[in-house]
Amino acid sequence: MQNLEKLRQFCQLHQPRIALILGSGWGDLVRHCAVDMELSYLEVPGLNATTVPGHSGKIVLGRWNDEPVILFAGRLHYYEGHPWRRVLEPVQIAHYLGAETLILTNAAGGIRADLRPGSLMALTGHLSWIGARAWEAFTFDPAGAVVRDPYCPRLRRDLLDSAAALGIAMSTGVYAQVTGPCYETPAEVKALRACGADAVGMSTGREAEAALKLGMRSIGLSCITNAAAGLASGPIHHEEVTTVAGEKSATLAAVLGELIRRLSVGTAADTSQLARSASE
């Protein structure tokens, strides 16, 4: 608990309101942050070391575009053998440290035809295929699929506006969370597409739902790193996923940097408005 208390004391002083969880291949974005403090997951109660390549497993406190942020460099996955409470612990820690906004990033397989490797997709909702009998909750009709949308519409608009301001193309779509660790079969991808999924991955959905329960607002951003199973010319490898995300590092950093800048300006404006209202 001592290290967690050290993080909390630092955050009380610097008041970071934005937390980011960096998915597969996104770890290089840490270098865009002026680091003030960092701890490995092993040094923080409730967390474990990451085992997946491309997930360094550390909490970084620092400044991105002069805005205090909390970065979770790496993600714990259910398929690594962790219980869900452990997978969701970074969300709990972000909330404990005072974060109000959670930016969730991931690498995903594209299902929709226009989502080619290198594409960016802002999440408009997700399908949760993580239970033992998850299939029974779905109908193979996009109009009747059970799509959950815990993502903040205003934050999504800010994200899309950030990309547009930089001249970077960004789509929107529904993400399907599955458990892994194996990539989906072509038959499963066909089923997901029939239910309305545009991309598929092994994270994010439960994290967004946990954030919502804690009163945090969140947004999900996928980097499409490969065509989903059955839609590509060959088998999918994790190295392909991390390589494509790494190649898009500069683009990803630019979008997130602009989003953080806009959120910083918006927070300042909201605070100023509250101060004026209190004095009237």
Describe the structure.
The protein is of the alpha/beta class and 280 residues long. It has a single domain, classed as Rossmann fold (3-Layer(aba) Sandwich). 35% of the residues lie in helices and 24% in strands. It has eight helices and nine strands. It has a five-stranded mixed barrel with strand order 5-8-7-6-9. Helix 4 crosses helix 8. The model has no long low-confidence stretch (mean pLDDT 88).
Brief summary of the model shown:
The chain is an alpha/beta fold and 280 residues long. It has helices at residues 2-14, 84-87, 89-96, 153-165, 186-194, 205-213, 238-247, 249-279, and strands spanning 18-22, 34-40, 58-64, 67-73, 101-110, 120-129, 171-178, 199-201, 217-227. The protein contains 8 helices and 9 strands.
Q: Estimate percent helicity.
A: 25-40%
Report the CATH superfamily.
Answer: Nucleoside phosphorylase domain
Q: Specify the biggest β-sheet.
A: 5 strands, mixed, barrel
| CATH third-tier fold name | Rossmann fold
What is the residue-mean pLDDT, rounded to a whole number? 88
The class by helix and strand makeup works out as alpha/beta
Terminus-to-terminus distance:
43 Å
Q: How many strand units? A: 9
**Number of helical elements:** 8
Stretches where pLDDT is under 50 for at least 5 consecutive residues are none
List the domain count as a whole number: 1
Helix and strand run: HEEEEHHEEHEHEHEHH
- Radius of gyration, in Å, reads 18 Å
Question: Oligomeric form of this entry?
Answer: single chain
What percent of residues are in strands?
15-25%
CATH-derived architecture:
3-Layer(aba) Sandwich
Q: Based on CA inertia axes, which overall geometry fits?
A: globular
Question: How do the strands of the widest beta sheet line up side by side?
Answer: 5-8-7-6-9
User: What CATH first level would be assigned?
Assistant: Alpha Beta
